[in-house]
TrEMBL record:
Gene that this polypeptide is encoded by: dcd
Keyword Plastid among UniProt keywords: no
InterPro entries, per database record: dCTP_deaminase, dUTPase-like_sf, dUTPase_trimeric
The protein, known as: dCTP deaminase
Keyword Hydrolase included in the entry's annotation: yes
Lineage: Bacteria, Bacillati, Actinomycetota, Actinomycetes, Micromonosporales
Signal sequence, renumbered to the chain: none
CDD domains per UniProt: trimeric_dUTPase
GO molecular function, one term: dCTP deaminase activity
Enzyme Commission no: 3.5.4.13
Keywords, ordered alphabetically: Hydrolase, Nucleotide metabolism
NCBIfam families reported for this sequence: dCTP_deam
Family annotation (SUPFAM superfamilies): dUTPase-like
Pfam families, alphabetized: DCD (PF22769)
Amino acid sequence: MILTGPEITKSMANGKIRISPFSIEQVNPNSYNVCLGDTLLTYSDAVIDAYRPNPTRQVKIDQSGFVLQPTELYLGHTVEEVGSDFYVPLLFGRSSVGRLGLFVEITAPIGDIGFHGQWTLMLSPVRPLRVYPGMKIGQIMFFDTMGEIDLYSGKYQGAAGPQESRYWRDKVGKS
């Protein structure tokens, strides 16, 4: 079952959901709006290698915004640190942002129970698009669980800012 907006607010109050900073104005009927942070990462090599660490370039978005380009993958982050040890969070782009031609988090929307931190956003525009720090970019929904809970303790725990892929760590030592 999906949590309603009032249940998200109640779960914030009783500690079952953590969102920081939290604003009641960002609570929707069945989700919570999250905002774009001020840092983007892009991969700097022409070819990205899944089995090796990849160099990145960092871009700071100032108040005049930053223009995303269609042939580039941008890793952004939420302003908010979001997590729960009780519910499964899922992050989706806001429909208003999708209507501007920006794909947000289309391949990895599910978060793990027990993850707490800023969420990395995979941003892919279909045409040049100016984005701004603090703009509402996505929404997180929370789903109730069934069964025993095994809390996340993986490689992205406590993320602050955009996190490049660490997929290569899964390959190390395996044949």
